[in-house]
Specification:
This protein is mainly α. The chain has one domain. It contains eleven helices and no strands. Helix 3 runs antiparallel to helix 9 and helix 5 packs antiparallel against helix 11.
Amino acid sequence: MSHYFYELLGLMAVFSIMAISPGADFALVVRQSIVHGRRAAIITSFGIGASLLFHISYTVLGLGLIVSKSLLLFGIIKWAGAAYLFYLGVKALRASAPDAPAEVVQSETPRQLSALRCFLMGFVTNALNPKAVLFFLSLFSVLVSHETPIVIQAGYGLVMSTALISWFIAVSVFFTMQSVRDRFVAWGRWFNRVTGVVFIGLGIRLATSQAS
């Protein structure tokens, strides 16, 4: 049992660095927080966490190795992910300025997204990242023994997913604090322009990435 505990510590040490590194997931949660409020951002965080379980599931089952060795499959996932990030970027660039905090909290407006849509935005943004295939494949290959039962490995994934959701919930809470959100709302359309450019830049980086 202590062996599994040390395996989990090793996984979490590396994974924690990846989790807090700014990327598409972080940018999405911040944008959801500012534009659509805390509820949308937290539900999006659960979508990201569910997608992480998806990545770990096929990694444990060995399907990740197939994807990593197939340039065609890697390319399909890569371009689909890049296209989705471009879509988010263009949508952000065309959006109107974020509402004042009181409007988001106190009223149901057409801008408020459904729970399912928020969840899917988080899931798809994370799922369509082929680098996640390589990351979890290499992480489990190096730090997890091939003798570790699949049930235990699934437990590792659940802990990692829970940690990731907790991190993004914390991000959601921070960016929806009125004093913080007010500063971003004050930027008006510039906030949308900046986040739009960030998503497009991430899409370009993904599109030009190579399987290694």
